[in-house]
Structure formats: C-alpha cells, structure tokens
Design a protein that fits this description.
CATH class of the largest domain: Mainly Beta
Number of domains: 2
Mean pLDDT: 77
Shape: rod-shaped
Strand order of the largest sheet: 2-8-7-4-5
Helix content: 25-40%
Number of strands: 10
Largest sheet: 5 strands, mixed
Radius of gyration: 39 Å
CATH architecture of the largest domain: Sandwich
Number of helices: 3
CATH topology of the largest domain: Immunoglobulin-like
CATH superfamily of the largest domain: Immunoglobulins
Structural class: alpha+beta
Distance between the termini: 152 Å
Strand content: 25-35%
Length: 164
C-alpha cells in the first residue's frame, strides 16, 4: 500500500508539472503571436493604381494597411475602415507626379511608399487649354460710342455760331 500511495503522489506531481508547462507554452505562444504586430510594424499594400501613367487627371489610390493608427496621403490624413482599407482620389498635374503614402503605428514606427506617375493628359484638356489661351490673347474691342473729352465740353459750346 505504501508503494501505491507513493506512485500516485508521483503521478499527480508529474501531471501538475506537465499542465504547468502546457499553460506556460500557451501563454508564451499567444504573447509571441500578439507581439508579431508590434515587431512587424505598419504595413502598406497599394492595390491601385497599377500603372505608372494616367490619361485622366483624377486617379483613385486604394489599398490596405495593417497595424496602423494614422495614414496620410500627400501629407493629408485619410480615413481607413475597420478592415484597414482606404480609397482616395488624387488630382495629378500634367507631367511627372509623386504620390506619397505614409503610415504610423501607435508605437511610432513609420513606413512610407511612393508612387511615381506620369499624367499625359487627354485631347480634351489640350483643346480647353488652347481655347483659354486664345481668349486671353485677344485684344479688348474698342467701345462703339466715342466719348468726348471733358475739357472740350467744359470750355465752350457753340450753338448757331454764338458762344453761350
């Protein structure tokens, strides 16, 4: 009987130790999984635009961010939804454009991505620009009615050859 009590006591100690190790491993694994967000920092994935040239002056910039608290597009705060998705419209200048997307997490880690795009413009934009230039280059027409000088009217006025 004495041997069985001792073996039962040893068995309980082994089971307790195994359970403690399992609990410690579970807590450590969970902490490691959760700290992945802290270690990896903010992430930006740009989904559109997928090309580097544009024919329209307005381009939709969209994508997904992870582990962020603040997102800016060309130094302007933009909203993100609860899944981390964003979509903003950007106006392009004719020629070369740089679109800057930055994200910061709550610990201050920072990531930046830049899109380089060339806006070629369309034929409609070029004709509009020419018509505006043509309007600006035209001289102003002279008035149809000729105004007389005030000095002539003030000094004399002739009626039937007599001075009034």
């Amino acid at each position: 009987m004495i041997g069985t009590r001792k073996s039962i006591k040893e068995g309980k100690t082994i089971i307790r130790n195994v359970l403690v190790v399992i609990i410690i491993c579970a807590i450590g694994g969970y902490a490691g999984f959760q700290s992945k967000k802290i270690i990896s920092g903010p992430q930006i994935t740009i989904q559109s635009p997928s090309t580097t040239s544009a024919k329209d002056s307005a381009v939709d910039v969209s994508g997904i961010v992870k582990n962020v608290s603040v997102v800016t597009l060309n130094d302007r705060l933009i909203p993100i939804d609860e899944t981390g998705q964003f979509k903003e419209k950007v106006l392009l200048y004719p020629g070369y454009n740089v679109i800057k997307l930055e994200a910061t997490d709550k610990f201050g880690a920072h990531v930046k991505k830049e899109l380089q795009m060339v806006y070629n413009g369309s034929d409609d934009d070029k004709t509009t620009d020419k018509s505006v230039d043509n309007l600006a280059a035209k001289p102003v027409d002279k008035p149809a009615v000729k105004l007389s000088d005030k000095s002539d009217n003030a000094t004399s006025s002739k009626s039937n050859g007599k001075t009034i």
